[in-house]
Amino acid sequence: MGCCTGRCSLICLCALQLLSALERQIFDFLGFQWAPILGNFLHIIVVILGLFGTIQYRPRYIMVYTVWTALWVTWNAFIICFYLEVGGLSKDTDLMTFNISVHRSWWREHGPGCVRRVLPPSAHGMMDDYTYVSVTGCIIDFQYLEVIHSAIQILLSLVGFVYACYVISISMEEEDTFDFIGGLDTHSYYQDHVELKPVKPVEISNDIEPEMRLLNLT
């Protein structure tokens, strides 16, 4: 009963993680945030693997999911530190885009209440440079929206870690109980200890035919 409850909870949680990861992936694509895009892609794959392992009773797949949740928590903690500029990090660098472009978070210009204005460039400037885009009136700054997204991912991952460990422990206990009461071990025991006695071939005597002939003659 406990295993079924834990499995159902883990399945629902994995489904919720998939939805949240897909939502985050869309906005990271819009902002050309290549580092988060790669992380989200790996996260989606591992969550699908964990979901498959939970449905199909594959503890090894759930173990992979458990290890990944710890890494995912670490990555999202780094993102929070990045946008809050903890430890010398700066949100204005191109770290999230692998220094390929000068794009920033999509929420920087499209957050709740944000008004975007493109200012005329100078003689040495370019229109696609973000120094010539003015954003005003945002209800919540983009860095806090990114922090909220990462905090949600951390919360879901921690809960998933707990449920995954619970499902793995219950599965291991059920396997041990099955072997103890006479499962696969008992079956193999009887196979190993059954004595096979040789069967002697039965010889059919040919003396019956002459006797039958004598009876017919008489």
UniProtKB/TrEMBL annotation:
GO terms classed as biological process: regulation of sodium ion transport
GO cellular component, one term: plasma membrane
Signal peptide location: 1-21
InterPro entries (UniProt xref): Na/K-Atpase_Interacting
Principal subcellular localization: membrane
Membrane topology of the entry: Multi-pass membrane protein
Location(s), subcellular: Cell membrane
Keywords: Cell membrane, Membrane, Signal, Transmembrane, Transmembrane helix
Record's keyword annotation contains Signal: yes
TM segment ranges: 34-55, 62-86, 151-170
Family of this protein: Belongs to the NKAIN family.
The protein's name: Sodium/potassium-transporting ATPase subunit beta-1-interacting protein
Record organism: Sapajus apella (Brown-capped capuchin)
